[in-house]
Design brief:
The structure is a single chain. By secondary structure, the chain is mainly alpha-helical. The chain has a domain of about 130 residues: Methane Monooxygenase Hydroxylase, Chain G, domain 1. The protein is built from six helices and no strands. It is rod-shaped and about 170 Å long. The termini are far apart. InterPro entries: Golgi_SNAP_su1.
């Protein structure tokens, strides 16, 4: 009798799970068809829909059947433990394990289908909100759209100006660094020349003597040229 009851519940669960799976599969298409016939502003997306009510009803019925099947399995386990024929214990345990596996499979399938249905419903809700936002944006006046485009263009111009300013500042900083390096190089050369001049004072005095001798030779040569010029003039006028 317990096995007959278990089989009857398993058959009912199998039919319910098939219908439940079909409801989950056809939910998205039904939502799209309703959105084509009605406006999203006047028709609610999910609340009060026949699919949602059917989903809740079938989920409750399947949960009740799963509870009844669990109770039948528990009663069969009690009967198996109290059986007085040892030779039948192995067959009874095998039968009980088979019904437990079927119950586990149905429970897993139910929770999986339920989770998929809830995920599809949440996705449809999000898509409906996005479509509503898009429609509200499209229904806005042309002045607002034009103003938005102008704001975007102005924002792009500001970004371009900021980029040019940053490039100019980078060039100025590089030029400053180059000039600073050249200034340091010139100071280094000057310090080296001063060091050489201080290290070799004899060379400095020799250069000064050479300059004085060159100046004296210039004076002598100028005097000779002047005397020769005067004598030539006197000879010419004589």
């Amino acid at each position: 009798d317990l096995r007959k009851q278990a089989r009857q519940l398993e058959n009912e669960l199998d039919l319910k799970l098939v219908s439940f799976s079909k409801l989950c599969t056809g939910y998205s298409g039904a939502r799209d068809g309703r959105r084509d016939r009605y406006s999203s502003d006047t028709t609610p997306l999910l609340n009060g829909s026949s699919q949602d009510r059917m989903f809740e009803t079938m989920a409750v019925e399947i949960e009740q059947l799963l509870g009844k099947l669990t109770g039948i399995n528990d009663k069969m386990a009690e009967y198996t433990n109290s059986a007085g024929v040892p030779s039948l214990n192995a067959a009874l345990m095998h039968t009980l394990q088979r019904h437990r596996d079927i119950l586990q499979d149905y429970t897993h399938e139910f929770h999986k289908t339920k989770a998929n249905f809830l995920a599809i419903r949440e996705r449809e809700n999000l898509l409906g909100s996005v479509r509503k936002d898009i429609e509200s944006y499209k229904s806005g006046s042309g002045v607002n759209n034009r103003r938005t485009e102008l704001f975007l263009k102005e924002h792009e111009h500001l970004r371009n100006s900021d980029r040019l300013i940053e490039e100019t500042i980078s060039i100025a900083m590089a030029t400053k660094e180059n000039m600073t390096s050249q200034r340091g190089m010139l100071k280094s050369i000057q310090s080296k020349m001063n060091t050489l001049a201080n290290r070799f004072p004899a060379v400095n005095s020799l250069i000064q003597r050479i300059n004085l001798r060159k100046r004296r030779d210039s004076f002598i040569l100028g005097g000779v040229i002047g005397v020769c010029t005067i004598l030539l003039l006197l000879y010419a006028f004589h």
